[in-house]
Amino acid sequence: MMISKLIRNMIDQMVEAQIKLGYSKETITLYYPLDSLNRILATSYETGAQMAEALMEAFRDREHSLGDVLVTAQGDRLGVVLPPEAGEYVHNKVEKPAFLVELIQLFGKNHHCTIEEIKVLFDKFSKNVLCEKMPENAEFDYVLSFPEKDVDNYFYCIRMEMGHTIYHRFLEEDYKMLL
């Protein structure tokens, strides 16, 4: 079980939320579909209950900075409940990636940014950005990513609709499942 990859993903999600919303010392629940957790952890649990039990054991047996993590399952949807200390750790100890800060600022000040504006920001951090237009009936219009995973290891799916531009970011495994 690759619990360190899940911990990294949870920290990344908390960082993103704190950049967008600010920091508040509170309990945080992150939700994952069972199949996504199986991909992240390189496991093959068949039920949410099995995954929840395995994760609870893994979090108990591994030293980490997130405090007492609780995992709940409702069918194939799992909730990872992080105590206030987890958010505090992220706020005080985890550096906010410059790329993500600037991306959130771009979307925050311009709710209808163009793909060209988004691409300019990506190009600021790498000259090798991958930008692909999605097929006509796809859920998203574009996907952008960095080949250099040290810049950012997520796939950014862009959707433009009704005058607004939104992004969703996915781990590579989850992005590939969208296709």
Indicate the structural class. alpha+beta
> Beta-strand percentage?
15-25%
H/E element order: HEHHEEHHHEEEEH
Described by the principal axes of the CA atoms, the overall outline is globular
Characterize the main sheet.
Answer: 4 strands, antiparallel
Number of helices: 7
Instruction: Kindly report the spatial arrangement of strands forming the biggest sheet.
Output: 4-5-6-7
Gyration radius, in Å: 17 Å
User: What gap, in angstroms, lies between the N and C termini?
Assistant: 25 Å
**How many distinct beta strands?**
7
What is the fold's blueprint, element by element?
Blueprint: H1 3-21, E1 28-33, H2 34-41, H3 48-61, E2 70-74, E3 77-82, H4 84-93, H5 98-109, H6 115-125, E4 130-133, E5 142-145, E6 155-161, E7 164-170, H7 172-178
Helix pairs in contact: 1-4, 5-6
Q: Which features characterize this protein?
A:
3-stranded antiparallel sheet, 2 domains, 7 helices, alpha+beta, 179 residues, 7 strands, 4-stranded antiparallel sheet
Question: Can you offer a commentary on this structure?
Answer:
The structure is a single chain. The protein is of the alpha+beta class. The chain folds into two domains: 3-93; 98-178, no CATH class. 45% of the residues lie in helices and 22% in strands. It is built from seven helices and seven strands. It has helices spanning 3-21, 34-41, 48-61, 84-93, 98-109, 115-125, 172-178; strands at residues 28-33, 70-74, 77-82, 130-133, 142-145, 155-161, 164-170. The strands form two sheets. It has a four-stranded antiparallel β-sheet with strand order 4-5-6-7. Strand 4 (130-133) and strand 5 (142-145) form a beta hairpin. Helix 1 (3-21) packs across helix 4 (84-93) and helix 5 (98-109) packs antiparallel against helix 6. The longest helix has 19 residues, at 3-21. The radius of gyration is 17 Å and the shape is globular.
